[in-house]
Fold each of these.
Amino acid sequence: MEPGLGSYLALSGILFTIGATGVIFKRNAIGMFMCIELMLNAVNLTFVAFSRHYGDVTGQLFVFVVMSVAAAEAAVGLGIIITFFRNRISVDVDDASILKN
Amino acid sequence: MVNALFFILAGLAIASAISCVYHKNPLYSAISLIGVFLSLASIYLTLAAPFIAVVQILVYAGAIMVLVVFVIMLLNLDEDKPITRLRYLFPIGGALGLVLLAQTMFIFYAVTKAPQPASDAGLEVGKTMSIGTAMYTEYLLPVEIVGVLLLMAIVGAMIMSRRMREPKIELVKKAEAEEA
């Protein structure tokens, strides 16, 4: 017996929520980045589950696009984190307050 | 059989995700996140999407996580400091998470109640050939846009992580000293 669409969507929702809570609670920029990756993966799971359910290849193609955007995000985001660390000797997002006031 | 496999993999994914959020040490978080990616790749295999499963392992568990681990080691990060400021907001954050979970569950429940097509979906859908055909015919423009986006990301990352302050001045000084 195969699990239905609902099981996959439930798993995706749980993973997305864990990722979102992580973004709320973490203060480490790299930790937040990893939680965002977790959320992107949850969305990918939804795409693949629907693609399987409707027998349409579009969902899997969109997963490919999401992965490319995640790779671009990793390159640029980690570049920002390294630059930030160079200026502040920290990756704590609370230290990123230069635009305050 | 597939059902049991799904529940094992789903439990593994959720446990790894919680451990990723829970650990204070970023390296442990990264390794737990690799666990999530691997279990999701296995779930993609049970969903008859072998191409996506392989790309998941190559791109996420391979490229992106290696980059993250490199940065963690490069910066030599300590563990997260305990949070002192805004401590009273913690339960509110947890409550917001629960609300979000309820919302997603409600939306997904509504979606599964929608009229469903016959689920005898073709098994050709997940194959590399069908994805490649769709990619280079019907969805050519999005693929090209993704290519341009990746190029922009490469250029942006290189410009951002380059040191651009002192070195030029030092070079000029060195040249002047050599001339004198």
Amino acid sequence: MNSYKYARKQGTAIEDCVQHNESPMEQSYLEQYLCWGRDTLVPWLNKVLGSCSDITGNQIEYHIYQVFCNLRINKLFEIIVDFPNSEPALTELKVCVFETDRYKFLKASLNRIISRRLLHLGAQTSDIVSIFVSSIKCLNFLDPTADLLSSISMLIRNYLRTRPDSMRSVINILTGDAKDSDDMDLENSTISNTFSDILLRNGFKGKVLRDQQLPADITTTLVKIFDSPDVFIKEFQTLLGDRLISRSDYETDRELKNLELLKKHFSEAKLHQCEVMIKDLMDSKRINTNICNNMDPESRFVNMKVLSRLFWPQFTFEPQNHPPCVSRFLEKYDALYSKLKSMRSLRHLTNYGTVDLDLEFEDRTLSLTVTPAQASIIGFFDGKDTLSLSQLVNLSGKSAQSVEKLVSFWKSKGVLKQNMNATISVVERIDDEGALVEQEMTDVRGHEEVEQNVEAIPETVKMFRPFVQAMLGNLGSLPVDRIYTSLKAFGFTESQDKLRAYLDSLIEEDLLEAAGGNVYSLLKK
Amino acid sequence: MQLMMANIPGVSAFPEEGNLLSWIATIHGPVGTVYDGFTYKLSMKFPLNYPFTAPTIRFETPMYHPNVDTAGNICLDILKEKWSAIYNVQTVLLSLQSLLGEPNNDSPLNGQAADMWSKPKEFREMVRQTWKEI
């Protein structure tokens, strides 16, 4: 009895020692304590207790294993998060679990920890996925039979299925840092001799089964989250398409590497479309160089990507007229392409891609990267100073609403301005005109500005009218940013500028008054 | 949320900055009563287990009323023992508004006001004297 008590005391002491250490996970202590137990503790106990001692070295050893096991299981989540830095701790845990036969306890605690600390609303999907990956690695190391893993991956999988963005996160993890799937092999890691002896001696079931059942591979486990690989491949294809189109060069090395990695896990036929997509890009590079070489040098300013329609995800085709300089060029490009590849024609998807613009004014130049639609609007002003909105609508073939949006983009850049008679003109000189634009934008009660904004205020903002009324009625006068933060907490999605414009329009309606600067209050009646 | 969007004339309420459990409410005196034309501010403090416990409501604007004491505390059965979880901010404020017009003179907190209730002219004068913008 007594000796047991001593052992208990020692156990507590060991626990304290390990816990007080600053980074207990990156070092291994077990061996040290085992030696101490064998060489110091047992002889001392024997001396103190004399003949009535029935304590043996094995008992002390077992106890040390037990204490360590509890310690490490308590920290299991941190161990998983810190992996591979926490590898020593993991090795110790592995040894302790098999020495004390606490496999079931480990499994139960693992499930509990995962569902309590990982699978809750506060965790971001990408974090869950990356911790899942890290726990796959840990558990493959702990238990090569994948029994532990299958129990928690069930939990995580069911949870991830309830999250809409899990597919994207998984693909990002898989493609984002592809080296993850390479360093799977932990078998050669540095397990000290003593421990590997123990592991061998115990011959735990993992060793036996090693050859029959390979440790779970990360990609397969992640893909298994989703019911069928087809869904996954489709999503991958969409993402791949987005990435390929949004690049301004023809670089495909990275995508190709990702694709090859996926090919290890899926049949080639399923990934055929993705392969065509990448090949399209490579072909485009050649075709584009070829065509550009056949053109006169001053019109070599467009690079195209030729995509095979059938193999790419669905595109939205937005009809749009181009400024004369651009459409002239596009026709030439078309002609050269048909010459190069007979019987084929191009259909321009001008709502994708980007345009690098250099705008030259009388007194300044601007360099911008914009969308093609934005560029073509400014292109219509080439050679003309003033256009009306309806003229722009006719020229571009877009709806009045979208034209207005594009014009306001350029207005915010200080390139276009709206005149009194509702025409739009280019701001050639910033010093006289620019000041006016700025003033218009900052002067919250500028008549024109307000009038314009009343038309542009969307219903989603107007919905908040009673809300604003209640807020100002009860809290007195408030600055715009306070109103904005409060509204945001209740689902207001528009920008602060939209809100300001709306509040200004409420002043016009005699509902509010501006109490100096940015502060608004209810108009007292 | 419902109240903020509903825009009921005469009553409104809004959370104070950064604290959803503490609201400021406004009640306009009902037309045709001695409180007609006056606006009263109230503070509403919600306990953590709201709606299972009644919020604590006080008049912040000085109030001359048989069931309101000089510190603004209110004696209304539905805020005390008759509270039910189905009440919300909107219904409570409406009950308070109707309390202004129909006080319970049998259990007054302000005895003087209860006595004076029968003389509307004098009462109105007292209300006017008590009311102070905050």
